[in-house]
């Protein structure tokens, strides 16, 4: 794969942001010496990046990966988190300390959840070590592609807490096999890319990180060529349908598409289908 061009205006401390092709952003976690682990400054920057990409009309699809070959992310940077963290600050009583901790956890959840809230489809490329927070992030992504060497684990029980950033809420809805979900979450055992594919956690497995990343970039380019009204609307409606009942979701879809069918994209799509031409869609 050829070298990628930095995305203009997107300069960050812990992430590289590239523009591999028109309409596509490639976000790369850039802490390879720390196995791309997350400390508080990292997750705060992560949230800001995905919130910004969500509103950027020039971006239509996003790819997320980790720098280096060793890890997508090893999860939480435990050493950094233990130094000056709110987790270890004494409060005047349990209620007041808990209030501060709750706000801290909710902020963390919001930063990682920015991937799910991003209006653009996000394709995550999982490779090497993918532990703890890696599962939270992957659950927020729309499409998951793994390299064959990926080593997954929901590790939080091994540090004395239930996973709290989203895995326990999202993973059962993705996989559907609650016995398997409870097994990996309760035991914190490793599972392979092949097993992740077998249970439906990842959509496909490629032979290497390079192959997985190329597949993601190719797919993102394909998504970027389609109507942003249709692509972004489809993500919104799928996520809404996951979290709501059938009747409510159908009603929401009807309201949503009563606007979408009035777009120029719909007209272009119909005409191109009849004429067998490839349409070009405006920014959204």
UniProtKB/TrEMBL annotation:
Pathway: Lipid metabolism; fatty acid beta-oxidation
Pfam families: ECH_1
GO molecular function list: delta(3,5)-delta(2,4)-dienoyl-CoA isomerase activity
UniProt KW Translocase keyword: no
InterPro entries for the chain: ClpP/crotonase-like_dom_sf, Ech1-like, Enoyl-CoA_hydra/iso, Enoyl-CoA_hydra_C
A GO cellular component entry from the record: peroxisome
Gene Ontology BP annotations: fatty acid metabolic process
Top-level taxon of the source organism: Eukaryota
Subcellular location: Peroxisome
Keywords, comma-separated and alphabetical: Acetylation, Fatty acid metabolism, Isomerase, Lipid metabolism, Peroxisome
Similarity remark: Belongs to the enoyl-CoA hydratase/isomerase family.
PANTHER family listed in its UniProt record: DELTA(3,5)-DELTA(2,4)-DIENOYL-COA ISOMERASE, MITOCHONDRIAL, ENOYL-COA HYDRATASE
Protein name: Dienoyl-CoA isomerase-like protein
The species this protein was found in: Emericellopsis cladophorae
């Amino acid at each position: 794969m050829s070298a990628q061009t930095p995305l203009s205006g997107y300069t960050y401390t812990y992430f590289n942001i590239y523009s591999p092709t028109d309409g596509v952003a490639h976000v790369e976690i850039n802490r390879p010496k720390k196995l791309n682990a997350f400390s508080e400054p990292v997750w705060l920057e992560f949230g800001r990046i995905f919130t910004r990409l969500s509103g950027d009309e020039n971006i239509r699809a996003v790819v997320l990966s980790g720098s280096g070959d060793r890890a997508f992310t090893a999860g939480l940077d435990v050493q950094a988190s233990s130094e000056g963290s709110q987790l270890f600050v004494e409060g005047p009583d349990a209620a007041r300390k808990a209030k501060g901790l709750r706000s801290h956890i909710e902020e963390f959840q919001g930063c990682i959840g920015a991937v799910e809230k991003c209006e653009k489809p996000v394709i995550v490329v999982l490779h090497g070590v993918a532990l703890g927070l890696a599962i939270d992030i992957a659950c927020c992504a729309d499409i998951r592609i793994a390299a064959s060497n990926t080593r997954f684990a929901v590790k939080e029980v091994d540090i004395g807490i239930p996973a709290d950033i989203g895995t326990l809420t999202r993973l059962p809805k993705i996989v559907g096999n609650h016995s398997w979900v409870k097994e990996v979450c309760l035991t914190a055992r490793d599972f392979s890319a092949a097993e992740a594919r077998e249970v439906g956690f990842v959509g496909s497995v490629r032979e290497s990180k390079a192959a997985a990343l190329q597949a993601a970039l190719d797919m993102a380019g394909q998504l970027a060529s389609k109507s942003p009204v249709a692509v972004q609307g489809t993500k919104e409606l799928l996520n809404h349908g996951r979290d709501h009942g059938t009747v409510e979701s159908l009603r929401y879809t009807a309201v949503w598409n009563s606007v979408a069918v009035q777009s120029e994209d719909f007209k272009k799509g119909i005409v191109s289908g009849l004429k067998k031409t490839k349409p070009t869609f405006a920014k959204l």
